[in-house]
């Protein structure tokens, strides 16, 4: 399939020769942004390892119909499964983290906060935040040709998240004062769970508490990184050593 064909995300299950109606947001994108016409082709992904080639067969001001003409298996998921626990940062930084971590193959993102933190005290609209982050992830998948959407979990208290972790993941908390680095990890590794702090970082007590829940403290080098840089650097290092970079 031509990589230059525009891509959109749809939640449907598709069958060859069937006709489907696009959502309002996709109608706007195709008409106003892409300015596509009848008989133009689209590539569609639907959170599976298949992509679908579709032809536009009907366009009106508020409605677009497409016909599926081809499907193809296309699995470009990383061999390692990374679950990012990201302490919630400012809007722009959190958006950046979601976008770039999606492009780099993250599988799950759980936004984390501390009890009585700014995020919790301000009574922020959680569902609105999650919808925004999911849209950012979809857009990132659309751009980078990824077909599986990362799961964006509900924000949760950081220590509850650490405590409730019952899987056999390798668990890492990144901290600039740690001695160990990713180079100390030995292959093979399949499932990895990582924690990245906010702008203020972690206190010594917080790090010790996280370590008690089975997390290994590691550093990403001698320099102190911004939170949005740290998450991308960590994912890059893990994908380079254990994944498909």
Automatic annotation (TrEMBL):
Q: What is its subcellular localisation? A: Cytoplasm
Q: What is this enzyme's catalytic activity, as reactions?
A: uridine(1498) in 16S rRNA + S-adenosyl-L-methionine = N(3)-methyluridine(1498) in 16S rRNA + S-adenosyl-L-homocysteine + H(+)
- GO BP: rRNA base methylation
Q: Domain Ribosomal RNA small subunit methyltransferase E PUA-like: where?
A: 23-69
Cellular compartments per GO CC:
cytoplasm
Q: What is its main location?
A: cytoplasm
* Residue ranges of domain Ribosomal RNA small subunit methyltransferase E methyltransferase in the record: 77-239
Q: Which Pfam families does the annotation name?
A: Methyltrans_RNA, PUA_4
Q: Say if the entry is tagged with keyword Translocase.
A: no
What keywords is this UniProt entry annotated with? Cytoplasm, Methyltransferase, rRNA processing, S-adenosyl-L-methionine, Transferase
Q: Which SUPFAM superfamilies does the record associate with it?
A: alpha/beta knot, PUA domain-like
The EC number on file is: 2.1.1.193
Q: Which InterPro entries match?
A: Alpha/beta_knot_MTases, PUA-like_sf, RsmE, RsmE_MTase_dom, RsmE_PUA-like, tRNA_m1G_MTases_N
The molecular function terms in GO held by this entry are: rRNA (uridine-N3-)-methyltransferase activity
Q: Which domain of life is it from?
A: Bacteria
Family assignment? Belongs to the RNA methyltransferase RsmE family.
* Role, per record: Specifically methylates the N3 position of the uracil ring of uridine 1498 (m3U1498) in 16S rRNA. Acts on the fully assembled 30S ribosomal subunit.
How is this protein named in the record? Answer: Ribosomal RNA small subunit methyltransferase E
Q: Which organism is it from?
A: Buchnera aphidicola
């Amino acid at each position: 399939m031509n990589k230059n064909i525009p891509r959109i995300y749809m939640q449907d299950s598709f069958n060859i020769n069937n006709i489907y109606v696009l959502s309002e947001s996709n109608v706007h994108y195709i008409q106003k942004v892409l300015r596509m016409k009848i008989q133009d082709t689209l590539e569609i992904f639907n959170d599976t390892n298949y992509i679908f080639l579709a032809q536009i067969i009907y366009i009106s001001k508020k409605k677009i119909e497409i016909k599926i003409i081809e499907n193809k298996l296309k699995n470009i998921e990383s061999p390692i499964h990374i679950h990012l626990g990201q302490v919630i940062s400012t809007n722009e930084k959190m958006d950046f983290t979601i976008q770039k971590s999606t492009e780099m193959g993250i599988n799950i993102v759980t936004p984390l906060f501390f009890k009585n933190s700014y995020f919790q005290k301000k009574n922020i609209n959680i569902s609105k935040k999650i919808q925004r982050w999911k849209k950012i992830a979809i857009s990132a998948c659309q751009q980078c040709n990824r077909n599986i959407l990362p799961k964006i979990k509900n924000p949760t208290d950081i220590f509850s998240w650490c405590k409730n972790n019952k899987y056999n993941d390798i668990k890492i908390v990144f901290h600039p004062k740690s001695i160990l680095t990713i180079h100390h990890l030995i292959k093979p590794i399949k499932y990895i769970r990582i924690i990245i702090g906010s702008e203020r970082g972690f206190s010594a007590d917080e790090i010790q508490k996280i370590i008690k829940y089975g997390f290994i403290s590691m550093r990403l080098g001698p320099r102190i990184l911004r939170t949005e840089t740290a998450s991308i650097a960590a994912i890059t290092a893990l994908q380079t050593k254990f994944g498909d970079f």
